[in-house]
Each structure stands twice: as C-alpha cells, then as structure tokens.
Design goal:
The complex is a heterodimer of chains A (169) and B (216). Helix content of chain A is 77%, strand content 0%. By secondary structure, chain A is mainly α. Chain A is flat and about 45 Å long. Chain B contains 8 helices and no strands. Chain B starts with a helix and ends with a helix. The chains are: A mainly alpha (169), B mainly alpha (216). Chains A and B meet through helix 3, helix 4, helix 5, helix 6 and helix 7 of A and helix 2, helix 3, helix 4, helix 5 and helix 6 of B.
Chain lengths: 169, 216
C-alpha cells in the first residue's frame, strides 16, 4: 500500500535536492522501487508521456503519480514538484543584493553559456535515444525551418511531426 | 490578421497614464499563461520557446537580455527550471500575485491534460501507431531545442564580443567546454554549471580590475 505522506515527501525531497525536470529521477527511482511502489516500465512510460504532454517535461512525475497511485498520486506529485521552484525567489533576492558586482554578472553570464552548451548535449541525447535515422534527421530540419518562420504554432508543428512519425515509421 | 487588429482596438485603455512598459492586469496575465499552458506540448524545450515568443516578442513584458539572465538564474534553483522561470517572469510583470497567477495559469491546463493523457495512454499503450507518432514527435522537439539554445547563446556571445576579444574566446570556450564536459567526461551537470559560473566570474572580475588600472 502506498502511504500518501511518505510518497509526497520522497518526491519533494528528490526535487529539492536536484535541478531541472529530470534531476530528481535517480532519487525517486531508487526510493519507489525499493518500496515496490513503481516498476521500471512505469518509469519509462511516464518519461515518454512527459515529453509529449503539455508543460515542462518535468511533469513526467505527475504521469508516474497517476500510473502508480491514480489521481491521488498525480495530485501529490503535482504539489511536490510545485514547491521547490518557489525557492527561485530567494535565489533572485540574493542575486539582486550582489547582482551589480562584476563577478556576479560574470557568474550568471558563464552559467548562461554553460546552460546553452549542455542544452545542446541533452537535446542530441534525446535524438539518439529515439533512434537517429534519415526520417528523424528530416523531421529535425523541417521543424527548425518551420519554427524559424515564427508562423507555425508549436502544437501544430508537433502534430505534423506526430503524423509524419505515424506515416513513416 | 484583421481579427488581431479588431482585438487591439476593442482592448480597454489603461485608466492611469502608463510610464515605462505596459502593465497588464492579473486577468490578462492569467489568460496569457493559461494559453501558454494549453499550448505547451512537447516538453520544456518547446514550452520555453513558446514563453519566449509570448513574453519577449509579442507582449514585450521582458527584454531579450533579461529573459536570458532569468533563465540562467533558474538553473541555480531547485526543481523544474521552467516553473522557476514562470515565477520569475510573472513577478517581474506584476509582483508576487503575478508570480502565483502565472504559475497557476501555466499549470492548470498542462497538469490536467497530462493526467488525462496518462489515463488515455494507459488504455492505448500497446498500439503501434501511438509508438510511431511518438518517434516522429521527439525529433521535432529536438529541432526546436537546437534553435532555442542558439537563440539564447547569441546575446550572451554578443555581449562577450563587445567586452573584448579575450572575453569572446572565454565565452566560446565555456559554451563548447561545458557541452564536452557533460557529453565526453560525464561530469555532473551541477558541477559543470558551478565551474562555468566561476570562470565567468573570474573573467569579469579581471576585466573590471583592468579597466580600473587603465583609469588615471
């Protein structure tokens, strides 16, 4: 039986001590599997749904909540991942206090560049995990082209891509 | 096109004379973020792309530079970066209520749809068509991600170039080096981010002290 308070705490703890939407994955995985509250397959499915469902891909935890504990699990997971981001206000306050120091500006500048670099790596890993071939390369290029026009809404773009996947694979 | 014009004209004029950027009402803010939440298919990458388009390019609530700075700051906070970003952007536009409204607006539709989609998926999980569509969606997300990260890196490298040629080379080194550190040396992301921040800080400090030495 899943204990709701412990379930909530395990997700909250994992999210507090990690950054990004999937930084909490290793901790949640270890904790839930140890209690037999989730299976590996449920994790894989939740991560995939997090990619295509609306909102940040970090919402995979909400999917996992539903798959393991129904609507109650989904709501507990939602609450647990909503709280840690509020600490950004403390981070921003700190930044405001010392923000005009050149070293602080340099820190955020360097951080920003590293984020862009790592972003590229993560995005390319996503492509590799999905299976990289001529079709996916074509979809990548087409989506860049369509996005650059700024005329195609993102959901339409993804719908087209899903259609292409269904037809070509 | 003509619809947008009509909407602009019928929009109520602000009561008090507005100085600086136009301050939207909380209701307007909720509507914009609700629409973002509703359209935010395709994970955080696509969503950030959408948010940038709405907040920077369409409504001009936040400057391009502030958007990139905020996003960098969000990497240092715990949890989902996109929610941190939503809180920061909401607060910049309308204070603490703005932050809460923005977060609620983004999350209400997206969380509800995520739960419904999971429930549907639980029924359809074994259809090959569903699997194939998913394989097509991932590369499109990747394409938008590539575009997004070049869009975000561009103003950072431009400001490095304005500073000096050596700052530009440090900037390029940070961009490429951090990617390599994660991809090839498998360093933890948080370690790479801290190191890149430290190098950026040292570089800026050095430049500031050089500028002081140059003054009489």
């Amino acid at each position: 039986m899943i204990e709701p308070f412990l379930y909530f705490w395990l997700i909250l703890k994992a999210s507090l001590f990690s950054t990004g939407g999937t930084g909490n994955l290793p901790s949640i995985h270890a904790d839930l599997l140890a209690r037999n509250w989730a299976t590996d397959r449920q994790f894989a499915e939740a991560l995939a749904i997090g990619q295509i469902s609306p909102g940040p891909s970090g919402f995979w935890v909400i999917s996992l909540g539903y798959l393991t504990d129904g609507v109650r699990g989904a709501l507990l997971a939602t609450l647990a991942i909503s709280l840690p981001p509020m600490l950004i206000l403390a981070v921003a306050a700190l930044h405001r206090r010392v923000g005009d120091h050149p070293a602080m500006q340099g820190f955020v500048h360097g951080l920003g560049l590293a984020v862009c670099g790592i972003f590229l790596v993560v995005v390319i890993q996503l492509l590799e995990e999905n299976g990289f071939d001529a079709i996916s390369a074509l979809i990548v290029l087409a989506s860049i082209g369509l996005a650059m026009t700024k005329r195609v809404p993102v959901p339409v773009l993804l719908l087209l891509a899903g259609l292409a996947g269904a037809l070509l694979y | 096109m003509s619809n947008a014009k009509v909407e602009l004209i019928t929009e109520e004029a602000p009561q008090a004379p507005v100085t600086g950027p136009v301050q939207p009402s909380l209701w307007q803010l909720l509507r914009v973020w609700f629409m973002l939440g509703l359209q935010s298919f395709g994970g955080g990458t696509a969503t950030l792309f959408l948010i940038r388009r709405a907040v920077v390019e369409q409504h001009h609530w936040v400057s391009e530079g502030a958007f990139t700075r905020d996003w960098a700051l969000c990497q240092a906070a715990p949890g989902i970066n996109l929610l941190c970003m939503t809180i920061l952007l909401g607060r910049q536009v309308a204070g603490l209520p703005g932050a809460l409204v923005a977060m609620a607006g983004l999350m209400l539709p997206s969380v509800a749809i995520t739960i419904v989609m999971t429930a549907l998926y639980a029924d359809l999980r074994n259809l090959s068509m569903v699997q194939a569509a998913l394989r097509g969606i991932v590369p499109a997300t990747v394409g938008m991600g590539l575009l997004l990260s070049t869009n975000m890196a561009r103003p950072l490298l431009a400001s490095s170039r304005r500073e000096s040629a050596s700052s530009l080379s440090v900037g390029i080194l940070l961009l490429v080096g951090s990617a390599a550190a994660v991809q090839f040396w498998h360093l933890p992301v948080i370690v790479v981010l801290c190191a890149a921040g430290a190098i950026g800080a040292l570089n800026a400090w050095y430049h500031a002290s050089q500028a002081k030495v140059g003054q009489p």
